[in-house]
Specification:
Helix 1 (about 5-25) runs antiparallel to helix 6 (about 235-245) and helix 4 (about 165-180) crosses helix 5. The chain has helices at about 5-25, 100, 130-140, 165-180, 205-215, 235-245, 270-275, 285-290, 300-315, 365-380, and strands spanning about 35-40, 65-75, 90-100, 110-115, 140-145, 185, 195-200, 220-225, 260-265, 295, 320-325, 350-355. By secondary structure, it is α/β, with parallel strands linked by helices. The protein has one domain (about 5-380): Alpha/Beta hydrolase fold, catalytic domain (Rossmann fold), CATH 3.40.50.1820. InterPro entries: AB_hydrolase_1, AB_hydrolase_fold. It comes from Nocardiopsis codii.
Amino acid sequence: MSRPLGRAVRVAAAVAALLTVAATTAATPGPLPGSSYAAPGGDVPATASASAPTATAALPEGVVDLPVEFTVDNVNRTRGQCSADGGEYTVRGHLTAPAEVLEADAPAVSLLVHGTNTGEWIWRLDVEGRNYVNELAARGHASVTIDRLGYGSSDIPDGFASCSGAHADIANQVVEQLRGGGYEVDGGEPTAFDTVVMGGHSSGALVAETASVSFGNVDGLLLTGWAAVGITDDTNRRFLSAYQTCLEGGEEHSGPGDPLGYVHFDPTLEDFREGGLGADADPAVLAEVEEHWGRNPCGVMISEPMAILYDLDLVGGIDVPVHLVFGAHDVLRQGVEGYPGLFTSSPDVTSTTLDDAGHFVTVDAGSELLYDTAAAWLERHAPTS
């Protein structure tokens, strides 16, 4: 596996430095920070419950949580250009769903993709009241979460073996297997889903948008903590620091089996906390999140600047319903209010801002509103029948 050339790294780093200007220019006028915005055709609940997380997340009654595996090819057939090694790998995750959904005649599911600096855990944090998949299952909806290639329980190749476009291709392969029932379930039989929505948190939303416009194989997009506009100085500081480390081959390795080419997006644990959660985050959430400060594959990180510019050019071609959720105190994205207006081909665009949340909107203060709006949106666009 060849490492990126110095010239390519310098060019992409320069692109990253320009992203703030490009993203700000692309934004269109929208509602003020802290408000909720809904385009015609979609109403979202305006309030959230006041419950606070206090304990380990418990599986709701009547809900199953099963390990799943997908065999995928690490290739990039998207409309964006970046390289991957073409190898076969296993992507692992979980299916969390009301048992009755899996037995329905026409079941629906959300494939949930995490961002660069998180993992499957962002959708299934082990804190009561802050576990997205449990909360959505309690509201009647099925979810599949995965660790992307190079993260967590999934296969961990050389960090330069894949890229953002390949991760979008892999996500589409998972969608195809969910539709056809061609995946493995530990403790059950695979369900073939009639409707598949793709959700993405942070740059996982970039993966979802790229997959949607490249393959047209999803029925909707649910995007959290993401916009291809409004990139802040905090984002660029973190990215350029990580990029320099990747230029040097990645971080130091803990042992012979430790893979090459990996880097922390947040250089310190303090950066990880402050970049993820707002000031009102529950202490139990903060303590649990701190356990998940992890490294990221360099090949994915260094391909994201061009993937974002590509996304800005093609997001207007996404022709499925879209729901976006922003955190008002997200230090990595600000000035995002106009982003929903870029989905000009979508038949239904809705968005909500969580007033007290930072970047990790799925687990941060006020995330009950996310659970409620996501469930209401799924009832409209991805009902199980």
